[in-house]
């Protein structure tokens, strides 16, 4: 049986889920909950086998999956979800899962291309943060249009306008926003840095490190759980994050598949 989860069922999952092993789905149960719909597969006895969730409001088809038992049939739940939400044929879905889940579910997905390796990192060593840099500004509402324009320029696919409610930091040069960063999640529970980028003309000059350090510092003021995701092949960025106190928590896969 496949049906939408009840609030009580979602609360029960949240009480036992490992945030770092199921980082994306954890956000669907918490900070992103109001924009998501969750479909569960159950045995005839009512035992939950697994969940597929969909996030509304992004420019692409964003899913998250949480298998509970090996008998979970992702294909069946995906077909049900597609019908319920009236998703188009042959559209491309996106999901992020840890390596263990990937090994179990890969055979059930029609992949568009080879998955990208994505590393979840957590800020551990607060003493590694550099001193405050006064060139990094907190960007309030007067900067919102500029931020949105820069997000488009940087092609930050995961940016949503809703994230403007979270703090943004940036560096201005000659009235131009040359480097910027914000958060995908900003709460007392946990923080996830995101939407970080530097104008191509100003790269390799240390602005990314300055932005990340200030975002991390601001995040640590509200919670000790400060995270970010980085593509495994981006060795330079990984080294940067390690230099300001981040450590690897979980290896994940970014997967594109046919819905």
What this model shows, in words?
- This protein has seven helices and twelve strands.
- It is an alpha+beta fold.
- The longest helix is centred in the last third of the chain and has 14 residues.
- A hairpin with a 2-residue loop joins strand 8 and strand 9.
- The protein has a twelve-stranded mixed sheet with strand order 1-2-3-4-5-12-6-11-10-9-8-7, sandwiched between helices.
Question: What distinguishing features does this structure have?
Answer:
single chain, 259 residues, alpha+beta, Aminopeptidase, 2 domains, 12-stranded mixed beta sheet, GNAT_dom, Acetyltransferase
User: What does the main sheet amount to?
Assistant: 12 strands, mixed
The rough form would be described as elongated
Distance between the termini: 20 Å
CATH-defined superfamily of the largest domain:
Gcn5-related N-acetyltransferase (GNAT)
What CATH calls the topology of the largest domain is Aminopeptidase
Question: How many distinct folded domains?
Answer: 2
Which strand order spans the largest sheet, edge to edge or round the barrel? 1-2-3-4-5-12-6-11-10-9-8-7
Spell the H/E element sequence.
EHHEEEHEHEEHEEEHEHE
Average pLDDT score: 94
So, CATH architecture of the largest domain? Answer: 3-Layer(aba) Sandwich
Number of strands: 12
> Structural class, from helix and strand content?
alpha+beta
**Uncertain stretches of 5 or more adjacent residues:** none
What is the overall number of helices?
A: 7
Helical residue percent band: 25-40%
Q: Strand content of the residues, in percent?
A: 25-35%
Computed CA radius of gyration, to the nearest angstrom = 19 Å
The CATH class of the largest domain: Alpha Beta
GO molecular function: acyltransferase activity, transferring groups other than amino-acyl groups
Domain N-acetyltransferase: 109-259
Organism: Paenibacillus etheri
Protein name: Acetyltransferase
């Amino acid at each position: 049986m496949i049906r939408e989860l009840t609030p009580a069922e979602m609360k029960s999952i949240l009480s036992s889920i490992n945030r770092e092993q199921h980082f994306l789905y954890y956000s669907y149960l918490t900070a992103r909950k109001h924009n998501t719909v969750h479909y569960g597969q159950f045995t005839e006895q009512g035992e939950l086998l697994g969940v597929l969730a969909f996030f509304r409001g992004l420019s692409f088809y964003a899913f998250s999956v949480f298998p509970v038992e090996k008998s979970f049939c992702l294909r069946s739940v995906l077909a049900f979800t597609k019908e319920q939400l009236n998703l188009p044929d042959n559209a491309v879905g996106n999901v992020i899962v840890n390596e263990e889940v990937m090994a179990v579910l890969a055979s059930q997905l029609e992949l568009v291309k080879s998955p990208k390796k994505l590393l979840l990192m957590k800020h551990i060593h607060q003493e590694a943060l550099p001193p405050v840099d006064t060139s990094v500004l907190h960007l309030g509402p007067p900067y919102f249009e500029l931020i949105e324009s820069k997000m488009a320029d940087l092609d930050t696919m995961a940016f949503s306008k809703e994230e403007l409610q979270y703090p943004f930091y940036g560096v201005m040069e000659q009235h131009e926003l040359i480097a910027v960063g914000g958060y995908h999640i900003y709460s007392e529970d946990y923080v996830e840095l995101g939407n970080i980028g530097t104008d191509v003309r100003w790269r390799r000059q240390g602005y990314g490190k300055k932005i990340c350090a200030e975002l991390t510092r601001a995040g640590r003021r509200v919670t000790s759980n400060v995270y970010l995701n980085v593509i495994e092949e981006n060795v330079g960025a990984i080294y940067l994050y390690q230099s300001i106190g981040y450590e690897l928590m979980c290896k994940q896969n970014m997967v594109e598949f046919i819905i």
